[in-house]
Design goal:
The protein folds into two domains: 163 residues, Aspartate Aminotransferase, domain 1; 261 residues, 3-Layer(aba) Sandwich (Aspartate Aminotransferase, domain 2), CATH 3.40.640. The chain is built from 13 helices and 15 strands. α4 packs parallel to α10. By secondary structure, the chain is of the alpha/beta class. It binds pyridoxal-5'-phosphate. Pyridoxal-5'-phosphate (PLP) binds next to α5.
C-alpha cells in the first residue's frame, strides 16, 4: 500500500482536540483504565518525519518523539521497508525455540556501536524496564552480590524491581509496593539544586556516594550501580561534569558492575551514539530500548562478554524478546542513524535549542535553567523570586498553550516543572524554528 507523503508543516483545521478526537476520548474513558494517563488527547491517524496527523486532519509538530522513540523520524522509509519485508517472511518463532539471523545481526551491531572496544555480547528484550531488570539480574549473578545503588530523581521503569529503582512515588509507585529489596538510593549530582553550588557538586556528590555506600551498604555487598548518564523523567538532569566518570572508575576499583541506563539517551539523541561517550565512560553493561527499534518495541542489554555470560544457560530470555520484526526495524533504524549522520543532526538541533531557549531564559526569569545535550534539552520552570521554587502550574499552562497551537511537547521532572524537547532527529530546521516560536508564544501567554 502506498500513501502520499505528509508535508512537514503544521496545519490546524479544527480546534485541538478536534471533534473526532473528543469522541474517541469519550470511548477511552469508558473502555481504558483511568490509570493509563494521556498527555494530549488527539488521536493519531498517520505520522511521518516530525509531523503527526490526527483523526481530524490536523498536522501537529512532534517535539516528543513518543518519548524519545522516533529518533529516525516517523515512518522512516528504511524502517518501513524492513518491517513490511519481515512481516511478509515471518513474524515469530521465538529465538529460544528456533533462532533467526536478525537477532544475531542486531547483537553484532550493538557490539559495534556501544562504547568500548572490549569483547561484548547482548541479550534482547521488549521494553526499557525489562532491559534494566535483566541488567541487574546479570550483575547479581556475575558478582555473587545482591545490593544495587540507584540515584535521586532516577527513572528506570514500572516493573517491580524497576519501580524500586525509580525515585518518584507519584504516580509511578503509588500503592504498588512492597518493592524489591536491596535497592539503595544515593544523592544525584544535580548542579542547579546542589546546596553548596554547582561548582562543588561533582566532588561533594561523589564523596557522599562513597561514604554512604560504605556505611549503609558495604562495597563488598554491592552488585551494581545504575545511572542514567542524563536523567530523563527526573528532569533532564545532566550530572555535574566528572561525576559519572568517577563513579564508573570507583565501580571498577571495587569489582562492582557499572550499568548505564541509556534507554532515553541512547542512539544519537545527545549528539553521540550514547551519552556516556561525552564523558569518556565505558559502562560494563548498557541498557537500551526506545530509539533502538525505530518505533517497534525492542530493548537490549549489551556488555562485557564475561558478565553477559554469567547467568546459567537459559537464564535470560522471553517469548517475544528480540522479535524478528523488531530486530529488522532496529537494524534499519541503526542504518538510518549511521547513513544520515543523526548524531551530527542531534548536535545541530542542540545548538539551535540552546540558543533559542537561552534567549527565552534571558527574557523570562521563570526559566531557572536551560540544560541538556544535543537533541535532549529542557527548561526548568521556577518562581521568579530567586528561590528556585518549582512552578508546576506554569509548566502545565505552557504545555497546554503549545497543545492548543498544535505542538506536542512533554513535561517531566521530579517536581513536574520541566519542559523537555525530544524532536525526531530528522526534524527540518524551519519546523524546529516554528516549534520554538510556538513555545515562546505559549510561554508569553502563560506568564500573562
Ligand atoms: C531512562 C529510562 N529507563 C527505563 C525506562 C523504561 O522503559 P520502558 O517504558 O520501555 O519500560 C525509561 C522510560 O521512559 C527511561 O527513560
Amino acid at each position: 500500500m502506498t500513501t502520499t507523503p505528509i508535508e512537514q508543516s503544521r496545519k490546524l483545521v479544527t480546534e485541538i482536540p478536534g471533534p473526532l478526537s473528543r469522541e474517541l476520548a469519550t470511548r477511552r474513558r469508558a473502555a481504558v483504565s483511568s490509570a493509563v494517563s494521556v498527555g494530549l488527547e488527539v488521536y493519531i491517524d498517520r505520522a511521518e518525519g516530525a509531523i503527526l496527523v490526527d483523526v481530524d486532519g490536523n498536522h501537529l509538530i512532534d517535539l516528543g518523539s513518543g518519548i524519545a522513540v522516533a529518533s529516525v523520524g516517523h515512518a522512516d522509509p528504511g524502517v518501513v521497508a524492513a518491517v513490511t519485508g519481515q512481516v511478509a517472511r515471518f513474524t515469530h518463532t521465538c529465538f529460544m525455540v528456533t533462532p533467526y539471523p536478525g537477532y544475531v545481526e542486531l547483537c553484532e551491531k550493538l557490539a559495534e556501536v556501544t562504547p568500548g572496544d572490549h569483547e561484548k555480547k547482548s541479550a534482547l528484550f521488549n521494553s526499557g524496564a525489562e532491559a534494566v531488570e535483566n541488567a541487574i539480574k546479570i550483575a547479581r549473578v556475575h558478582t555473587g552480590r545482591k545490593a544495587v545503588v540507584a540515584f535521586d530523581h532516577a527513572y528506570h521503569g514500572r516493573t517491580n524491581l524497576t519501580m524500586a529503582l525509580t525515585a518518584k512515588v507519584q504516580p509511578y509507585k503509588q500503592g504498588f509496593g512492597p518493592f524489591a529489596p536491596e535497592v539503595y538510593r544515593m544523592p544525584m549530582a544535580y548542579p542547579y539544586r546542589w546546596p553548596t553550588g554547582p561548582e562543588n557538586c561533582a566532588e561533594e556528590a561523589f564523596a557522599q556516594f562513597v561514604s554512604q555506600v560504605h556505611v549503609q551498604v558495604g562495597e563488598e555487598n554491592l552488585a551494581a550501580v545504575i545511572l542514567e548518564p542524563i536523567q530523563g523523567e527526573g528532569g533532564f538532569i545532566v550530572p555535574a561534569p566528572g561525576f559519572v566518570a568517577r563513579l564508573a572508575q570507583w565501580c571498577t576499583e571495587h569489582g562492582i558492575v557499572f550499568i548505564a541506563d541509556e534507554v532515553q539517551t541512547g542512539f544519537c539523541r545527545t549528539g553521540d551514539w550514547f551519552a556516556c561517550e561525552h564523558e569518556g565512560v565505558v559502562p560494563d553493561l548498557i541498557a537500551t530500548a526506545k530509539a533502538l527499534g525505530g518505533g517497534l518495541p525492542i530493548a537490549a542489554v549489551t556488555g562485557r562478554a564475561e558478565i553477559m555470560d554469567a547467568p546459567v544457560v537459559g537464564g535470560l530470555g522471553g517469548t517475544y524478546g528480540g522479535n524478528p520484526v523488531s530486530c529488522a526495524a532496529a537494524l534499519a533504524a541503526i542504518e538510518t542513524m549511521t547513513g544520515n549522520d543523526l548524531a551530527g543532526r542531534a548536535r545541530l538541533i542542540g545548538q539551535e535549542l540552546e540558543q533559542r531557549l537561552s534567549r527565552l531564559a534571558a527574557e523570562f526569569p521563570q526559566i531557572g535553567e536551560v540544560r541538556g545535550r544535543g537533541a535532549m534539552m529542557a527548561i526548568e520552570l521556577v518562581r521568579p523570586d530567586g528561590s528556585k521554587t518549582p512552578d508546576a502550574a506554569l509548566t502545565k499552562a505552557v504545555l497546554a498553550g503549545c497543545a492548543r497551537r498544535g505542538l506536542v511537547a512533554l513535561g517531566c521532572g521530579t517536581y513536574g516543572n520541566v519542559i523537555r524537547m525530544l524532536p525526531p532527529l530528522v526534524i527540518e530546521p524551519a519546523l524546529l524554528a516554528e516549534a520554538l516560536d510556538i513555545l515562546a508564544e505559549s510561554f508569553t501567554e502563560a506568564v500573562g
